[in-house]
């Protein structure tokens, strides 16, 4: 292999592997759905997915994967043609193929040997041993059709390009089960031909007339409108499920663009993407912060010039410039923030398979319904919530949903249901995990907490139902004793809550005995920008993320009482330990609390806390600036921000204050 | 509101289709064979024609050709049954804009009609 070839191979491989990731995730989900209810379109999807992987692997000369995907493709082909029904044994085998492909992918990335495939292929061949005739109804064609382009056609297309006539590849996908597919093909071809110059089509008109078509029609057209008209015409024809238009690239040009159709009408489309290092985004965000500061200084300069008659004209112009700069930097900031967002699909996609496997292991029947998977979140937030979600879902399978027998006794459908949904709500994202399982018994929770010595019998007796449910978030509540193979990994709900609170998120639980349990996660869209309450204490300004603020109140002199030698604030019957903010930061929490006018009610490490401050300044949207490792080690400090007037302020991490 | 000419020799199909269209706010005129369809088209000048393929006197394809000869802009959607592939193909060649396969769901028909009326 020449060096250039190797580099090109690596580049192709890179693209292939990215695509493979998406395909595997989609296929896994489709299989889970298929197992539940047969669906011709899904069979087709899985079939096409394997076909695509096989084609890619073959192009790259990766023979072992070609062989493996071929077996899966054959099975799906038989299912599609109705020759064979999809049994759960087969689904298991198909999942093994996906598992193998995942390992295979890792081996490619790590430059290791491929995992052995012989056993897997044997397993798969059991299902396809009987000879089967090629299904005549739907002919399979490569989904993209590109590698079938003959040299002659390439030349013809290049000729168009050389005469400055843009050429586009239009790929039209039909519902595979549509009636009179060949006529649909012909209809699209005819209508598009009326509008633009169709240079070539696959299948050809002859093939359409002799019914020799698949569910994909590929056309090469020449037009001046970027293929827009062709797309609209094709998209308006019945049974068309997808139209993609890609500029045709000359044969000798780099092919990097071909994997990303520049416009695709499809809801599940991932869109056009480039990969950017998060560090670069952070850097850009920081730079924008600087820009905001400069803008503020410009405004200040302008106001100084405005005072003097002689310079007022310049001052006015400068002020206008500053306000323009403000709008620009604000939009830049929003743009960068959006660039950091990723759809929840990225982590949701693995859950259907996970739930299926867990449910099988527990002998339960569970459907997982996912809603709002396209809701977007900052990637840092996404990373943090992955483990908590896994934990909650595992709990739902293990402790929530009952066995089919139990459910029958209760008069519930044997199949349990877990709904994972996500949506935007104002400036946050809400994720809810609901199961229709056994629910939690507040009394049982209290007994358990008492047995573990977490609360006294009297304390337990005073707890309301809602407060009893909160017990599950106490450190030490989930112990190895109640953990099973499924849900126990030494992580308790307390860790879930702490992890979420660390990113200014929040988790709550509702449950009804016998009816089910719902966990609600409220998460910030991003960690880079947050709303914060600005407070002043001993001449310094601090920002407290509003997500940690319960309430801010005025403190009257006699509101503070000393209980057990410690100052305490009584608010509507609730007792808050009262500490001064300055004191707590200086590791002397009980000092400097005289004359404090206000208190911010909050919670630190699960404990109620009233932070005494000199003044409340107001609520602001602040940009978190990374202050490096120096500040990261400071107790109770999450970072710093720049205030609108250009002054820096520290952002508190309330959870780590005490 | 768009005016639609429904052409079918089966009264049942005609009634059913007309009713569905009227319920959705379209104005409907009817014809029970190809010859009648051409005559009605000239008189009523509808925005769209829903044309059955198999009809007595003058079949859907012939009728379509005459319509297009009279009005090259005539919008015709063929109504067909499975197994009439070659005829539908011919109809498309002769300028039919779309086709619907019987038996169809109300939504399919309305969708096809809507697309043509918007186009």
Walk me through what this model shows:
The complex is a heterodimer of chains A (658) and B (119). Chain A has 658 residues and is of the alpha+beta class. Chain A has 5 domains: 3-128, HPT domain (Four Helix Bundle (Hemerythrin (Met), subunit A)), CATH 1.20.120.160; 146-264, Alpha-Beta Plaits, CATH 3.30.70.1110; 278-340; 360-524, Heat Shock Protein 90, CATH 3.30.565; 529-656, SH3 Domains (SH3 type barrels, Roll). In chain A, the strands form 5 sheets. In chain A, strands 15-19-20-18-17-16 form a 6-stranded mixed sheet. A 5-stranded antiparallel sheet of chain A has the order 2-3-1-4-5. A 5-stranded mixed sheet of chain A has the order 7-9-10-12-11. The longest helix of chain A has 34 residues, at 3-36. Mean pLDDT of chain A is 81; it is low at 130-147, 253-271 and 479-490. Chain B has 119 residues and is α/β, with parallel strands linked by helices. Chain B has one domain (3-118): Rossmann fold. Chain B has 5 helices and 5 strands, in the order E-H-E-H-E-H-E-H-E-H. Chain B has helices spanning 11-23, 34-44, 60-70, 85-93, 106-118, and strands spanning 3-7, 27-31, 48-52, 76-81, 98-102. Chain B has a 5-stranded parallel sheet, sandwiched between helices. In chain B, strand 4 (76-81), helix 4 and strand 5 (98-102) form a beta-alpha-beta unit. In chain B, helix 2 packs parallel to helix 3 (60-70) and helix 3 (60-70) runs parallel beside helix 4 (85-93). At the A-B interface, helix 7 of A face helix 4, strand 5 and helix 5 of B.
